[in-house]
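#struct-help
A.M.: can someone run this one for me? Single chain, 71 residues.
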Amino acid sequence: MATCTADQMTNHHHKDVNAANSTGLGQLLRTWHQRFTQRDELAHLTERDLNDVGITWDDVAHEVDKPFWRA
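D.P.: on it. Structure tokens below:
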């Protein structure tokens, strides 16, 4: 009769799922941080910068007013 140790019976799939979840969470947090940073930079553009990229103050206000979790 064969015997198995606890290490051999570890559910490796479960670890992979946890790693995927933590990776997904990390990516979500990075995305939120990028949105926050980009919107802050957008809010500080000058009139000349806005003309260069072809957006208006209304466009800026619409984007900056969004919470960081909303695309």
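A.M.: thanks! Residues 29-71 form one domain.
D.P.: also worth noting: DSSP finds three helices and no strands in the chain.
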